[in-house]
Amino acid sequence: MTQDLAKQFQGPISNVFDEVHAFWIAGGSCDGCSIATVGASSPSVENLLNGTIPGAAKVILHHPVLAVNAGEEFIKPFRLAAKGELGAPFVVLCEGSIMDESLAAETGGYWSGLGADEDENGDPQPIPSSSWVTRMSEHAAAVIAVGTCATWGGVPAAANNPTNAASVMDLLGEDYRSVLGLPVVNIPGCAPQGDNITETIVAVLMFLNGLTPLPEFDELGRPSWLFDETVHRGCTRAGFYEEGNFADEHGDKECLVEIGCWGPVVQCNINKRGAINNAGGCMNVGAPCIGCTMPGFPDSFAPFYKTAPGTMVSSNISRVTGTVIRNLREMTMTFHNRTDRWNKNGKVPSGWGHVKEPNLLKKVMHYTYEKMQFSDSPKPGSKK
Ligand code: SF4
Ligand code: SF4
Hints:
Blueprint (H helix, E strand, L loop, with lengths): L1 H7 L10 E8 L5 H7 L6 H6 L7 E5 L8 H13 L6 E6 L5 H5 L7 E6 L5 E5 H9 L4 E5 L1 H5 L15 H5 L12 E3 L6 H15 L15 H4 L10 H5 L27 H4 L37 H26 L3 H6 L14 H14 L11
Parallel strand pairs: 1-2, 1-3, 3-6, 6-7
Antiparallel strand pairs: 4-5
Helix pairs in contact: 2-9, 4-6
The structure holds iron/sulfur cluster (2 copies).
């Protein structure tokens, strides 16, 4: 996907920018993505705001909750950016789904907005978030959707949603391109892993300054280096899955697939990166994956915490093959838990407990195992 975009891109960027504005616009959201962002540590929001990342421009953040100014003073840069008159490059960060404001207007209300304009009677009327996104996206270096509500629609767009909520991609359409030539960049997760957000922003800022090639994004605009793999492939419990060992209830240490984990088919990196500051992450703390990074979330993963149909096949195959593999591995471990001296003496001198000696069958199998292990190299200490 990125190669196609690189071809479309019109040429090298000649300016190196010291500062880039970032406008945070919230639609239908719980603010969880804002919380996740301020929890990022690698890089942190402070790194971005202080301009301490070599090659990345310092970020001037306009965030409705984190701002120290308010009222028209806060809204003014938004107005300038929406008209293309800011005089500096900027990115738009969207949190939350895009609500259908025409539905709210039917009853004279609005779903989500920022600032106000006067109507024909001089009364202030809220400016919908969707209007800001549409107008600012025309002049933005990049539009970055943060969190599953903004990337795919998320919980507000679940079945029967009364607001006709949708994603930023749905609002701007497939033909949308930012000033840098980018379609909407999507960082999913409910909430997303904070470092995924800040790292992607830095990757875009580096590209903006012409210091790196266009980062790799997949066909849905996800940063490929963060979302290419399934969460199962990086799960600390994947060894249990392979050996056919499954948790029966929450709190068990084994693989959670039979109590509703969708990890084998979900693209997410939280187990490798941790939820915050390299700690936590769903299965690391005992929670089955409910697919919150995926476009089908939440409806495609309902009902939560119920064994997925595909598990009937895959976990039962693992159970059969895993039982054999597990027993063979346990036998190998028996001999790798002993020194050569203990083997020669036929006894383990441990005061902690009695270590059972392997029986004749196990010794024969281990002898064969070692013959194969040292078939093309001498065993350490041998005279050959
Ligand atoms: S807990 Fe989920 S992600 Fe982890 S190994 Fe089991 S199925 Fe895979
Ligand atoms: S492991 Fe699953 S539930 Fe947890 S963050 Fe990733 S996609 Fe969401």
